[in-house]
Amino acid sequence: MAVGALKNSVQYLKGVGPKRAVQLSALGLSTVEDLLYYFPRSWEDRKETPPPRAPESGHVVLKGRVVRASAIFTRGSISLYKCTLNVPSWGDTIEAVWFKRMSRRYDVFQTLKAEVKAGADIWIVGRAQDSLLKLKEVQVDEYYGLDDPKAGFHVGRIVPVYAATEGVSTRQLREWVAQALQESDHAQDLLPRALVEKRGLLAAPQALRGLHFPRSIAEMEEARKRLAYEELLLLELAWLLKQRQTKAGTKGFAYELKRHLLTPFRQHLGFELTAAQKRVINEIFGDMQAHAPMTRMLQGDVGSGKTVVAVAALLLAVENGYQGAFMAPTEILAEQHYWTLTKFLKDLPVRLRLVTSRLKPKERAEALAALRDGTCDIAIGTHALIEGDVAFKDLRLAVIDEQHRFGVRQRSTLRQKGPPMDLLIMTATPIPRTLALAMFGDLDVSTLDEMPPGRAQILTTHGTEEEAFARVRQQAQEGRQAYIVYPIISESSRVDLKAAKAEFERLKAGALAGLRTELIHGQMSGTQKTKIMEAFARGRCDVLVATPVVEVGMDIPNATVMVIQNADRFGLASLHQLRGRVGRAGHASECWLVADPQTEAAKRRIAVLCETADGFRIGEEDLKLRGPGEILGTAQHGELSLAIADLFRDAEIQAQARADGQEMLDADPKLAAPQNAALRRRLVDLYQNRWHMVDLA
Ligand code: ADP
Ligand code: MG
User: Fold this and answer.
1) How far apart are CA 180 and CA 31, in angstroms?
2) What's the whole-model pTM score?
3) Are 525 and 393 members of one domain?
4) Could you say which ligand is closest to the alpha carbon of residue 304?
């Protein structure tokens, strides 16, 4: 038997009719194969409980013969069913008790009477109250006849526990999975034999059996390893195929290094590019000059100088007569980029346009017309630039700043918009390698691993508000500036905003009296925000009280103190980003985390931040604390999720899977060879039909 049986509908399993099939499909389970890959959420040790030596309470599993049984009716709706069970392995008898709502469960009571009667041999699974040694009474949750052929799935062993759903219990799932396992015993292995041998893996049937119904923890671990490998191999193959497909394409336009913009740009920068910046710019230019469209991610810690790199790429496009788009996650950051670029390109014939929703209708219409007729070279804005109905004359390069969340869906959407385009995604939250491979496996990655010279250390302290404000006043006296940031969950939350406003008034009247203090938040109009940011940038304001709108990208070199209020409410990446707003111009800087962390995770976040400034370490910690889904926001985006592999634990397996995937595709680019047929079919099921990531036609 081969694939056929795996693809059978669950409906053909015993006990699954059309109604159950519908309930199962709510769990995403339509075929026998789906069921096999519905992995347990946990396991329960249901081997027979040894006799207690000391008073004990808790979970017990026992096998015995019923000595006598009787129903006890009480007033009210609860009644008891009670039996005396002789348990040979204990050399003793115990009392087993069932609580039932007899009025409603008359049928259950009848079944009990028929099945649990004197002389019957049964298993019980239940809970012992108080002292088992003394009372010998067990409250029964489940029972099975010793001669029930299904008992073996539920008792006397380690049993799987599944995430159940309305109408489908873990007990039923256990029986159906067991049946599915029987049917699939001879099913074809997804992995080619050579690979199973090379990596010393369990064969598929053993692995599936060992995961659902392990005989030991060791066996379960072996099984998990094999299935994690399989899952990661499929994922890496999908990414590698996508990457190969992109690289096989041609974008149909060519670049020449003319340098009439790039050379003066470099000359007027006012600083030397770091070696890392030069290297990365070369990598990007290499991609842009190649036939295939670029899909590159630029990683660089906060302050590593990504903007200059982006400008160089944009200028290459403009030199060649094409348009570029520079996109930021927020409008305020887009505005800042606009100023920065205006400054960088002051004396160059490059036409910039800021496109945000804050433009007046007339300005916006003008800007859009300029993009359309090509009288604008670089458009700066948010994602709305490429997501909406904005039309470009000849857009060839999209730079997306601070967006490691720019997932596969968004990338595809962008790619579908018009002719092929080069794509550069920049992120300051260094993503651990394992995560990058799993979530962006088709991207080429460049890393800015060097900071521009003259960066000061930022002293990070977990301290009190008083200490922090004392430093703010001190620094202001020396002509420096400070940020005080309040957490708000969403920029549109009224409650949070009110709190921030109240705080602002409190500070102005108290701790920061006499300083020039301004408030900035996400609900202000664009012009208001711009005015305040400008005042701060020009040094006409000492302290900026802000909501996290300042989180990414702001670049005010004279700011030397960052105070983060209720720092325990921020995630690690945000804290690191916020801290990166200071220490930008070689002035000794400091970051104060004001917090009273309640949870272990919050304590850990604060400790990590005080300990290290290394973005990569922070990224790793973030992955450990939050898991990949939350970091990437995959839950909201409905993107890839892993059922069994753990990017943290399985980093080595993942590296193997990636290498094996490369090798396979080198030898068999379309996975057309017979030994790869099963893998190919699964790949199509998962990543072609479900995620549209690959096209194996
Ligand atoms: P990020 O990578 O966080 O986006 P930015 O591009 O905002 O960093 O750069 C941070 C600051 O460093 C800016 O003020 C920028 O002008 C400056 N900068 C960038 N490259 C260099 C360099 N090679 N030498 C000195 N300063 C630089
Ligand atoms: Mg930046």
Assistant:
1) 10
2) 0.78
3) no
4) 1
